[in-house]
Amino acid sequence: MNLEEYKGVYVYAQQVDGTLSGIAFELLGKAKDLASDLKTDVTAVLIGSDVKGLADELAAYGADKVIVVDDPELKDYRTEPYTHALASVINEYKPEIMLVGATAIGRDLGPRVSARVATGLTADCTQLEIGDFPLNPMPGKEQKHNQLLMTRPAFGGNTIATIACPDNRPQMATVRPGVMQKIDKIDGAKAEVIEYNPGFTPDNKYVEIIDIVKSVSETVDIMDAKILVSGGRGVGSPENFKLLEDLAEAIGGEVSCSRAVVDNGWKPKDLQVGQTGKTVRPQVYFAIGISGAIQHVAGMEESDLIIAINKDETAPIFEVADYGIVGDLNKILPQLTEQIKAA
Ligand code: FAD
After folding, report:
1. What is the ipTM of this complex?
2. Could you say which DSSP state residue 304 is in?
3. Residue range 33-78, pLDDT digits in tens
4. Which label site among 129, 229, 304, 330 has the fewest CB atoms less than 10 Å from its CB?
5. 144 alpha carbon to ligand 1 midpoint, in Å?
6. Where do the annotations place FAD binding (predicted)?
7. How far apart are CA 125 and CA 173, in angstroms?
8. Residue 130 region by backbone torsions, left for phi larger than 0, else alpha for psi between -120 and 50, else beta
9. Ligand 1 mean position to 128 CA, how many Å?
10. CA–CA separation, 201 and 58 (whole Å)
């Protein structure tokens, strides 16, 4: 493999039903940084049916080029046609770096594509940067420059590993949603649009979708909430979460929780914030009866404003909080909710 042939930072621009997923913009934001370090450009790969119109939106969030694979076969996500499409783009255009979101779709697509194009993939990354590898070279061992250093939790989150792919291209990673930041929208930005269709043979359409049943959720995804009222084991019981629900209702927020709450069966897993839950970045994050373990903080520390309520003044959560209230949540929350309602 001639590594020199591989150029540019590519992003899989996930769309569902003709709407771009938030992860596409987050990946473009990170890709911009990486491309600037490598002095190259950013290409979005848009796969679907009748999706060409989304190219301008990708340009507005940082894509210099958009490769569109548009075919009726690609209307809904199916593993084989999408793998064929993305692997064909990689073989044709030879990107140096290929980023895919660690969404349900990306976790299916990324590893298959990496196997198809015979390269490695680092899954569920929380940090990406350009640097030298190995980080600490052994005497006599060559250190390669301008490598993609892919960082992710390993061994069940007990350690953080930095991984590189020095001998193959593209360097591929799936990236955790909610971790990277999209850039501010550039109105009127235009990208070069390249239409590419590798063709679809009967071999790569052996799954037929008969019906799609969408899950109906009454709550907002906590990753989209602007205000989160998050409770921990200190809340004491599932019934006592009513105090948090009242506060959330008064300020237009959503309730989330720590892993201890999920492990106790008080709240469902999709409300869990943290390393093995969701990464959130709301405008305001209330941490109520949460100690502030590193695995929890990893999922919420990027919040704009953190307000902690804890009866233990030495709780680590106060180290990341902008405002802290030391006291019993059972006394503080009803007063806080009343004051907010009265304001
Ligand atoms: P605790 O640590 O028990 O803290 C409860 C807090 O409530 C205490 O600080 C206490 O002072 C306070 N309190 C009690 N009563 C009151 C009261 N009446 N008023 C005010 N304050 C009160 N955790 C996550 O949250 N998310 C993850 O994704 C996650 N992933 C993990 C992955 C791995 C591999 C491992 C090993 C652990 C993970 N954990 C995760 C668990 C994490 O280490 C902690 O155990 C967990 O976050 C503790 O939850 P907690 O803060 O709710 O409970």
Report:
1. 0.99
2. S
3. 999 999 999 999 999 999 999 999 999 999 999 999 999 989 999 9
4. 304
5. 41
6. 233, 258-259, 272-276, 289-296, 310
7. 7
8. beta
9. 28
10. 29
